[in-house]
Amino acid sequence: MLGYCKKMLGAFVTVNQFFPSLPGIFVNPFWLSRRALYASLREYAPRLTGTVLDFGCGSTPYRGLLTAATRYIGLEYDSPDNRRHKRADIFYDGLTIPLEDGSLDNVLSTQTIEHVPNPARIVAEWRRILRPGGKLLMTVPFMWPEHEMPHDFQRYTTNGLRKLLEENGFEVLAQERLLGGCRAPAQLFLAWLYDLLRLGTRRPFVHCMLTALLFAPVSLAATILAAVAPANSPTYLDNLIFAKRV
């Protein structure tokens, strides 16, 4: 019985890592940011039709949101660690994506471009492999602690991200600031607490107990305050861009 409970708890934590339900507030220390990210991707991802390249696909958490896609291709940087742990269909050398010019309908990139040391080159590669009018859906942090070191290279403001895309052959169709107002500093505080407590190294039960007792009250308080406090859009965590190749 205990083993079954542990298994069910582990499954609940895994599902709520990228798809945070309301009860997931008690098991996901990054519930605020992940819930905002998921809500926006759920809105935009069904607009990607045809063949979609998931650039930096990782464990392919958002593949299921691509409900209008007819073909999915996951891509990762070619390294021994990525080949062992990532669910990619193809790997690339960090410079050239091994696909033909104009062979794709869409590119999806979530929380990845900050880990690319040559972002202008990669955005130009996206343009090359997209057909004219092909769509790009991407998210990228504006404020977030350094992570996956030493492969963390930049952050983007709204204008910086727009400039990067427009200078490399894209037209921005929509842009959103994700998790604005008081929820942004609340999530940054929780990210600091996560590192302080080394929560990622704790056993699952301890992880969940600490999240429920320490993290969930902060997330809940920030959510309630955000519902009644004036919005402060310049204070936010992530950018979302929906663009097309010109």
Mean pLDDT: 94
Q: Could you tell me the CATH topology label of the domain at 32-179 and 233-245.
A: Rossmann fold
End-to-end CA span: 58 Å
CATH homologous superfamily title of the domain at 32-179 and 233-245? Vaccinia Virus protein VP39
Which sheet architecture does the biggest sheet show?
7 strands, mixed
Q: Name the helix and strand elements from N-terminus to C-terminus, one letter apiece.
A: HHEEHEEHEHEHHE
Description:
There is one protein chain. The protein starts with a helix and ends with a strand. It is globular, with a radius of gyration of 19 Å. It has helices spanning 2-18, 31-44, 80-85, 119-129, 158-166, 183-196, 204-228, and strands spanning 50-55, 69-77, 90-92, 104-110, 130-141, 170-180, 236-245. It has a domain at 32-179 and 233-245: Rossmann fold, CATH 3.40.50. The mean pLDDT is 94. The chain is α/β, with parallel strands linked by helices and 246 residues long. The protein is built from 7 helices and 7 strands. Strands 3-2-1-4-5-7-6 form a 7-stranded mixed β-sheet, with helices on both faces. The protein is 39% helix and 24% strand.
